[in-house]
Specification:
The chain is an alpha/beta fold and about 150 residues long. It is about 30% helix and about 30% strand. It has a 6-stranded mixed beta sheet. Strand 1 (about 20-25), helix 2 and strand 2 (about 40) form a beta-alpha-beta unit.
Length: about 150
């Protein structure tokens, strides 16, 4: 994830008093959290738990190594405020990966909100070049309506 994407996630999905849980690899999100003066459980929270307070944003890498996707998303849902989001930074190359993530999230009661794709450069006029993607993020949400159509 780029520094700019970390800043966009923090500024667009949280308010200054909101808690963010950072499970992403690299310092980019931590830098954005600090620069935006947000509260967070950073990487150190991973081995000891996620804390007792619910978060507005959880950011994680994908694929997961140590847990099943549905179990992971159930834990995310339990630690999100209603209307909170999980941002999943995807590995590149597998076109079915976003679908797999959304299916697992839906089974855990999270709903698809947005798919963000950020590119290094825009194609030039007259060229048929593919975009050089540097960040691919799925945004999932916990519905504020219990039992609602987007709540699972």
């Amino acid at each position: 994830m780029s520094n700019a994407m970390g800043m966009r996630l923090v500024h667009n999905l949280t308010h200054p008093s909101d808690l963010i849980i950072d499970l992403a690899k690299g310092p980019q999100l931590a830098r954005a959290i600090i620069a935006a003066h947000r509260r967070s459980h950073l990487h150190a929270a991973r081995p000891v738990g996620w804390g007792r307070e619910s978060a507005t944003l959880i950011v994680t890498g994908w694929p997961l190594a140590d847990t099943s996707p549905v179990d992971f998303f159930l834990r995310c849902r339990a630690h999100l405020v209603p209307g909170g989001c999980v941002a999943v930074v995807l590995a590149h190359g597998d076109v079915a990966l976003p679908v797999d993530v959304v299916i697992a999230a839906k089974r855990a009661g999270l709903a698809y909100l947005q798919h963000i794709v950020a590119a290094d450069r825009l194609p030039r006029r007259g060229e048929q070049a593919q975009l050089a993607i540097h960040t691919d993020v799925l945004i999932l949400t916990r519905s504020a309506i219990q039992g609602g159509a987007t709540d699972g």
